[in-house]
Amino acid sequence: MLMVASPALALAGTETLGDTNTLDVTTSTNVIMAYSGGTDGTAYIIGTTNSKGTKAYAATSGFTGIFVKDVAGDTGASTDLSDVSDDNVGAATLSDWNVLGD
Fold it and tell me: Rounded CA gap, 80 and 56, in Å?
């Protein structure tokens, strides 16, 4: 089980997530990833965006689909993933995000 006590943000390169059971995640150039496993690791939220792209994507353990939203596509793209936080771990909906395919 992957346990993360606070949100992690990975920029291009390798980021180690977790405390006891870790996971190394390598992102592509310009890809930003955020993850939170909450305080007990029983639920999660994860999101990605490309700093040169126009979409951000997220998934949670509380929803079987994928969320998507339009983003600015600039170097401040990490703010596009501000909803990927402990507050939304396991969420069934995310405000200001759409369900991919709807």
Answer: 7
pLDDT at 55 over 50: yes
Strand partners, 34: 9, 47
In this structure, what DSSP letter does residue 51 have? T
| H/E run at residue 67 | strand 67-70
**How many of the other CB atoms lie within 10 Å of CB of 22?**
12
- Mean pLDDT for the stretch of residues 37-49: 81
Starting at the edge strand found earlier in the chain, the sheet holding 55-60 runs 8-10, 31-36, 45-50, 55-60, 67-70, 98-99
For β-strands 23-27 and 8-10, DSSP reports them as unpaired
Closest Cα to residue 19, out of 37, 42, 34?
Answer: 37
Q: What does the block give as tokens for 72?
A: 């600015």
